């Protein structure tokens, strides 16, 4: 039996507990006693082993309260449905001669999807491929390509010189109205901006962090290239440069967040809180209420009925009214 505890905040989970010799001996003892003729005694031994296993799993949970515990066990008889009711079993297919002997337990419902595979070598148990049911955050949304202008001092000065030497009377003489003149001048200014001000294109991925800069992305590519080359010295140097840049980028990002809180700009503070908590408001959805739709139709059709109604009868003057 294997009990594995992984920390969800880490990129690569670390196994906090491996094969437990004590539990293996308990399982072996329970299997030997299953051969007993007395069914009640056999059932009691299996339940005793299950309780011992459940106590060990709960001990791992108490040691690592924030970890994800995954239990892999080979059961000839029994399961953890009574001892550990909050754990879910993912392997539903038969693993040996029509019986489900291999179990996988965890507290996350619907975390894996079990796919049976061929047995390995001469093993009498088939292999089971546990495929994660979730999709990676990187694959949930396509990369977003954004273009922005780099308003440097040199570019702004060059644009200013271009506008200063422009003969604006040409636009005034060739246009016939104020709207046409305004549109022509604005188009010329936009043309000069696109021609002179340099632009940069940035690709944003769904799992990007706010502190992950373009330099970090370049250093990460260099580290991966050094790893693929097989040069240990080059890889060690690239890994060190990347780690130092990560530390520096996080420090600078933290200082920027502190400055936002020190200012009196509420919008900047709210933006900082969203960045810290990764808060993303849900998009509003319309409510499919038939009664609301009918009420709106009746309200707006009321005006059409008033508009299309026949002319009211003429109002008679007071002299024409017969009071008799």
Count of DSSP helices?
A: 9
Please tell me the overall pLDDT: 76
Shape field: extended
Largest sheet: 4 strands, antiparallel
Q: What's the arrangement of secondary structure elements?
A:
Elements: E1 2-6, H1 21-34, H2 39-63, E2 68-74, E3 88-89, E4 102-106, E5 112-117, E6 127-132, E7 144-149, H3 153-164, H4 169-174, H5 178-196, E8 199-204, H6 214-229, H7 232-262, H8 266-277, H9 290-308
Antiparallel strand pairs: 1-2, 2-4, 3-4, 5-6, 7-8
Helix pairs in contact: 1-2, 3-5, 6-7
Could you describe the 3D structure shown?
This protein is an alpha+beta fold. The chain has 3 domains: 2-134, no CATH class; 136-206, no CATH class; 209-279, no CATH class. Helices cover 48% and strands 13% of the residues. It is built from 9 helices and 8 strands. Strands 1-2-4-3 form a 4-stranded antiparallel sheet, covered by helices on one side. Strands 5-6 form a two-stranded antiparallel ribbon. The relative contact order is 0.05. Residues 2-26 and 34-43 have low confidence and may be disordered.
Structure summary:
The protein is of the alpha+beta class and 324 residues long.
Could you list some keywords that capture this structure?
324 residues; alpha+beta; 3 domains; 4-stranded antiparallel beta sheet; two-stranded antiparallel sheet; 9 helices; extended
């Amino acid at each position: 039996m294997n009990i594995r505890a992984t920390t969800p905040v880490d990129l690569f989970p670390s196994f906090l507990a491996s094969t437990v010799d004590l539990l293996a001996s308990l399982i072996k003892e329970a299997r030997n006693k299953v051969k007993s003729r007395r069914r009640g005694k056999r059932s009691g031994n299996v339940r005793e082993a299950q309780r011992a296993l459940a106590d060990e799993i709960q001990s791992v949970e108490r040691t690592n309260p924030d970890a994800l515990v995954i239990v892999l066990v080979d059961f000839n008889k029994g399961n953890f449905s009574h001892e550990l009711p909050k754990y879910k079993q993912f392997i539903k297919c038969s693993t040996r001669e029509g019986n489900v002997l291999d179990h996988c337990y965890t507290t996350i419902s619907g975390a894996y999807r079990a796919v049976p595979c061929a047995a390995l070598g001469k093993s009498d148990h088939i292999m089971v491929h546990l495929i994660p049911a979730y999709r990676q955050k990187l694959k949930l949304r396509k990369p977003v390509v954004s273009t922005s202008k780099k308003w440097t001092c040199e570019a702004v000065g060059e644009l200013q010189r271009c506008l200063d030497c422009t003969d604006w009377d040409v636009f005034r003489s060739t246009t016939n109205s104020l709207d046409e003149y305004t549109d022509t001048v604005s188009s010329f200014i936009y043309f000069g901006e696109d021609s002179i001000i340099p632009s940069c294109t940035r690709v944003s991925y769904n799992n990007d962090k706010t502190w992950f800069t373009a330099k970090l992305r370049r250093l990460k590519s260099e580290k991966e290239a050094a790893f693929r080359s097989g040069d240990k010295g080059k890889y060690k140097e690239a890994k060190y440069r990347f780690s130092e840049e990560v530390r520096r980028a996080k420090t600078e990002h933290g200082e920027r967040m502190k400055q936002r809180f020190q200012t009196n700009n509420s919008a900047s503070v709210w933006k900082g809180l969203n960045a810290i908590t990764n808060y993303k408001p849900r998009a509003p959805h319309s409510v499919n209420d038939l009664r609301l739709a009918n009420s709106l139709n009746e309200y707006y059709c009321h005006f059409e009925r008033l508009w299309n109604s026949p002319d009211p009868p003429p109002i008679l003057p007071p002299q024409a009214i017969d009071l008799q």
